[in-house]
Amino acid sequence: MNPVLDLALTVLIGVLLIGGAFWMLTAALSMFHARDSFSRINVLSPATGLGLPMIVIGAVLQHTRTSGLDPVVLVKTLLTVLALIIVSSIASNVLARAAYLSGSPVDPRTAPQDLARAPGEGEQEPHSEER
C-alpha cells in the first residue's frame, strides 16, 4: 500500500475511534448532570446515534486495512450502522414514553411539557430560572 495512503487511513481510523469514544465519554459524564429521566435519555441519544457508528466504522476500516476488503464484512458493517441509528432513535422514544407513563417526575424547569396538558389547553411558558 502507498505510504501516504496508509498514513491517511491510519489518521482517519484514529479520528473515528477517538471521536466515537469521545462522544461516549461525553454522554456518560453528562448523565451525572441530567436533572430527570427524560434529560438522561436525551443525553444518551447522540452517543448511540453517532458515537457507536463511528467506533464500528473505525474498527472495520482497521480490519480492512490489515486484512483486505471483504464484501461480507462491508455489508454487515452497513447493516450494523443502519441498525444502530434506527434502533437508537426508536429506543429513545420508547424509553421516554415509558418513563412518562410510569409517572417518573419531570423537572419543573422543563417547559413546555406537551404531554402533561390536554390538546388545546394553551402554551406553557418556559421557566427563566437558572440552574
Give a written overview of the molecule.
With 131 residues, the chain is an all-alpha fold. The chain is built from 3 helices and no strands. The protein has helices at 3-30, 37-67, 71-101. Helix 1 (3-30) packs antiparallel against helix 2 (37-67) and helix 2 packs antiparallel against helix 3 (71-101). The chain is elongated. The N and C termini lie far apart (54 Å). The model has no long low-confidence stretch (mean pLDDT 85).
| SSE ordering | HHH
Specify the helix fraction band.
Answer: 55-70%
Shape: elongated
- What Rg, in angstroms, do the CA atoms define? 20 Å
Helical stretch count? 3
Output mean pLDDT: 85
Low-confidence stretches: none
Tally the beta strands. 0
Beta strand %: under 5%
Q: What is the multimeric organization of the chains shown?
A: single chain
Summarize the structure.
By secondary structure, this protein is mainly alpha-helical. Helix content is 69%, strand content 0%.
